[in-house]
TrEMBL record:
Protein name in the entry: DUF7991 domain-containing protein
Domain DUF7991: 1-106
One matching Pfam family: DUF7991
Keywords linked to the UniProt accession: Membrane, Transmembrane, Transmembrane helix
Superkingdom of the organism of origin: Archaea
Keyword Transmembrane on entry: yes
Segments passing through the bilayer: 40-63, 75-94
Organism: Halorussus aquaticus
Length: 107
């Protein structure tokens, strides 16, 4: 059975990864002019951000130690669920990039 600290640690990692992914995806959708650019940057850079946040935060809960019995389930909880939630938040809840007014670029 998982301890309270392990469960809290997983929830913390899930929340942080969801916020990081949602902000990154939103930034890519607003700044990039092509749909494929957004998809490629999201598919390549968000997992790299997940590696960093998971390594930084998992030291507190012992991600690879005795706190986790099944690593596959742990990775699904820490990476797949936050990524899916962040994509759905950006696609379904946030206004489309065409509706957002960006400041003029001065050169």
């Amino acid at each position: 059975m998982a301890s309270v600290a392990t469960v809290f640690g997983f929830l913390l990692i899930m929340v942080v990864n969801t916020v990081v992914a949602a902000v990154a995806i939103r930034f890519f959708r607003l700044r990039l002019s092509t749909t494929w650019g957004t998809v490629v940057y999201t598919a390549l850079l968000v997992p790299l951000l997940y590696v960093v946040t998971t390594i930084l935060l998992s030291g507190f809960i012992g991600f690879g130690g005795s706190g986790v019995r099944d690593r596959g389930t742990a990775l699904i909880l820490v990476w797949v669920v936050p990524f899916t939630l962040a994509v759905s938040l950006d696609v379904f809840w946030m206004p489309s990039p065409e509706e957002v007014d960006l400041p003029e670029q001065t050169r």
